[in-house]
Every structure is written in structure tokens, then in C-alpha cells.
């Protein structure tokens, strides 16, 4: 059997990334150009700026990814690209580049869902056992996804307002940290000796949905009260209280979803999977409950093209190719 080499592209938000993946799991190259420094001045990602930055670096990234992989471009089996969800202008840059290459080289094109990419980042390090439950936590998504078998996705629950990463970034901003503030809140929470008492959003009994906006408002109120009273040094307790509230609900609902569906494995993924508090709490709980947990290494948690290549490989195996009509979809369902 011939080896499969997939060149994957990811430009859905603020990272330009290109990777070459061999046979679905072997990472021959994975280049990531982050635009964070550029967007930081604006306190968040500016879509128009993101698109332009992608345009500036995409060609070089693709060339370099293939060069580092050490194979001639003709040897590629397919070109994969994130088709959505994400910023439409940003997605478009990756899609146009991927289409052009696929056309010029005469290779099949594979459109990949960004969340499928985050989920299959786990395949880069571990086999996925079905049925499998994924807890997707990123700057744009908070979802519990059931995969009965390879290639099937059922969203059991999702956020009704803010995504977890988004809430982290807003809380971080209120505590005075630069964008993206998730890692700062994580660190501060770890150092705290006490926790501010903050609400938990369980929603209706049995619901797998999430809600972060009430908690976010509670944090902003608490910060304002501390400020009004002229107090300082309150930040660690707020970070800790916020993180405890988020983690308790995420862990509880994920475990319940695994049990209710008879899932053989829990996959944690997305940028917030880098959160130390969440990784620890979920690991301890899964250990106690005898649930097999998979968490990708940090580099594959935040946006990258290797995960897109891993997801594309499954489509390549089953011959699910896209046409050159492939469009950028800002909101695309799994
Ligand atoms: O998956 P990702 O790179 O981009 C999206 O697809 O959204 O996730 C980025 C998000 C940001 O909101 C960032 O603050 C958050 O992940 N994040 C964290 C941590 N590291 C990254 N949130 C909490 N704790 C962390 N350690
Ligand atoms: Zn992402």
C-alpha cells in the first residue's frame, strides 16, 4: 500500500498554519504563524486584519511545510483545508490557496470542519475508540459531541451564549491582562489561596448545554465592588472562583454524557484544553470513574494545521473529497 501524505491548511482565525501529515498520524511538519501580537493592540481579533496577515504569510508557509516534510509536492496525496466555522475572510485565504494548489498539482481537495480538526488532534497521539465523547472547549466553541462511529457527529450540548475561551478572555481583561488572557487567569487561579464564591450555571436538569454569560457578569460585578471598596489583591481569588465554577460544570456534564451514552473514551480538545486546572480536574475525575481520557499535547490544543490533516485523513480513506467549488462557511454544522 502507498503512503498517504496530506498537506493541510488552517486559517480560520488568527493563526496561519500549514502541515504535512503522513498516514494520518505522523507529523512531518507543522508550522504555525500566530498573529496574536498584531491583534493584542486591539484587545481581540480584528477580522479584516486577520485576513491580510494570512495573505502575507500563506504562500511561504505552504512552501516551507512541504520543504520541511522532505517530499516533492507531486508526492502529496491530497490538499486539506478548514472550510468553517470561523472568520469568513480568514477562511477564504486558506481555501483559495488550497484550491489553487490542488488544481495546479492535480490533487484531490478535502474540506475539513474546524471542530472535527480539534477533536481528531487526539488521533495524533492516541487511537480513538468508539463510541467516543468529545468535550470541545475553545475561544469560539463549547460543545459536547458524541461520535457513535468514525465520521459521525452528534452535538449533545453547546453554549447558549459565550464560549469558554471567550469568557476566560473577558474575565482576564477585567483583571487587567492582555489578550488572549486565558493562560493568565489559569496561572493566577493556580496561585490563589482562596476562591471568590461565584455561581454555577447548571441549566435545566439533564441539559448538556452551557451558559457562561451569567458567570462573566458575576465576575465583572465582583471586580467593580472590590474596586469601589478600594481593595486590591482580590484578583487571584476571582480567577480561582471563576475557574472553579467553569471546571465544575464542564467536568460534571462531560462525565454524565460519557455515562449516558456508554462512550468508551472522553476526548478533551480546543484551546482551553491547555488549561491546567481543567486538565487536572478531568484527569482526576476520569481516573476515579475509570473513564479513558485523551488530551492532546499543548501544541495540538490551540489552532494548528496538523489537526486538520489528522481529520482529513479519515475523509481521504473513505474517498470524501470536495470539489473546487468549496466555499468558506462562517457557521458550519458538524
Ligand atoms: O482553539 P483556539 O486556539 O482558538 C479557537 O478556535 O477559538 O482557542 C483559543 C482560546 C482563547 O480564548 C484562549 O484564551 C484560550 O483558548 N486558552 C486558555 C488557555 N490557553 C488558551 N484558556 C484557559 N486556560 C488556558 N491555559
Ligand atoms: Zn480552534
From TrEMBL:
Ranges where the Gcp-like domain occurs: 26-309
Q: Which Pfam families match?
A: TsaD (PF00814)
Family indicated by similarity: Belongs to the KAE1 / TsaD family.
Top-level class of the enzyme under EC nomenclature: transferase
Q: What does this protein do?
A: Required for the formation of a threonylcarbamoyl group on adenosine at position 37 (t(6)A37) in tRNAs that read codons beginning with adenine. Is involved in the transfer of the threonylcarbamoyl moiety of threonylcarbamoyl-AMP (TC-AMP) to the N6 group of A37, together with TsaE and TsaB. TsaD likely plays a direct catalytic role in this reaction.
Chief subcellular site?
Answer: cytoplasm
The UniProt entry's coiled-coil ranges are: none
Cellular location(s): Cytoplasm
Q: State its cofactor.
A: Fe(2+)
Q: Which reaction does it catalyse?
A: L-threonylcarbamoyladenylate + adenosine(37) in tRNA = N(6)-L-threonylcarbamoyladenosine(37) in tRNA + AMP + H(+)
Instruction: Kindly list the positions annotated as binding substrate.
Output: 136-140, 169, 182, 186, 275
Task: Recite the UniProt cofactor note for this protein.
Answer: Binds 1 Fe(2+) ion per subunit.
One MF term from GO for this chain?
tRNA N(6)-L-threonylcarbamoyladenine synthase activity
| Protein name as catalogued | tRNA N6-adenosine threonylcarbamoyltransferase
Which residues of the sequence carry a binding annotation for Fe cation?
Answer: 114, 118, 303
- Keywords for this entry? Acyltransferase, Cytoplasm, Iron, Metal-binding, Transferase, tRNA processing
Q: What is its EC number?
A: 2.3.1.234
This protein's superkingdom? Bacteria
| HAMAP family assigned to the protein according to its UniProt record, in alphabetical order | TsaD
Recorded name of the encoding gene? tsaD
Amino acid at each position: 500500500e502507498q503512503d498517504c501524505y496530506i498537506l493541510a491548511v488552517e486559517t480560520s482565525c488568527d493563526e496561519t498554519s500549514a502541515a504535512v501529515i503522513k498516514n494520518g498520524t505522523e507529523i512531518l511538519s507543522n508550522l504555525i504563524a500566530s498573529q496574536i501580537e498584531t491583534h493584542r493592540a486591539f484587545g481581540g481579533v480584528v477580522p479584516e486584519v486577520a485576513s491580510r496577515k494570512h495573505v502575507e504569510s500563506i504562500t511561504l508557509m505552504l512552501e516551507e511545510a512541504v520543504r520541511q516534510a522532505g517530499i516533492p509536492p507531486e508526492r502529496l496525496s491530497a490538499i486539506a483545508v478548514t472550510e468553517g466555522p470561523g472568520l469568513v475572510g480568514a477562511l477564504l485565504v486558506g481555501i483559495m490557496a488550497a484550491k489553487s494548489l490542488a488544481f495546479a498539482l492535480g490533487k484531490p481537495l478535502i474540506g475539513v470542519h474546524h471542530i472535527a480538526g480539534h477533536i481528531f488532534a487526539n488521533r495524533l497521539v492516541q487511537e480513538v475508540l468508539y463510541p467516543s465523547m468529545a468535550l470541545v472547549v475553545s475561544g469560539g466553541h463549547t460543545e459536547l459531541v458524541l461520535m457513535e462511529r468514525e465520521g459521525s457527529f452528534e452535538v449533545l450540548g453547546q453554549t447558549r451564549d459565550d464560549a469558554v475561551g471567550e469568557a476566560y478572555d473577558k474575565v482576564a481583561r477585567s483583571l487587567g491582562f492582555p489578550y488572549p488572557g486565558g493562560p493568565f487567569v489559569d496561572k493566577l487561579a493556580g496561585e490563589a489561596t482562596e476562591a471568590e464564591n461565584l455561581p454555577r450555571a447548571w441549566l435545566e436538569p439533564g441539559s448538556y448545554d452551557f451558559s457562561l454569560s451569567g458567570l462573566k457578569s458575576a465576575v465583572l460585578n465582583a471586580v467593580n465592588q472590590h474596586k469601589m471598596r478600594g481593595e486590591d489583591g482580590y484578583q487571584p481569588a476571582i480567577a480561582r472562583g471563576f475557574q472553579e465554577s467553569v471546571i465544575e460544570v464542564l467536568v460534571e456534564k462531560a462525565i454524565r454524557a460519557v455515562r449516558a451514552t456508554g462512550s468508551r473514551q472522553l476526548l478533551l480538545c480546543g484551546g482551553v484544553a491547555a488549561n491546567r486546572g481543567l486538565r487536572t480536574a478531568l484527569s482526576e475525575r476520569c481516573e476515579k470513574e475509570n473513564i479513558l481520557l485523551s488530551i492532546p499535547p499543548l501544541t495540538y490544543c490551540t489552532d494548528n494545521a496538523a489537526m486538520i490533516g489528522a481529520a482529513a485523513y479519515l475523509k481521504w480513506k473513505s474517498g470524501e473529497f470536495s470539489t473546487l467549488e468549496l466555499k468558506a462557511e462562517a457557521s458550519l454544522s458538524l
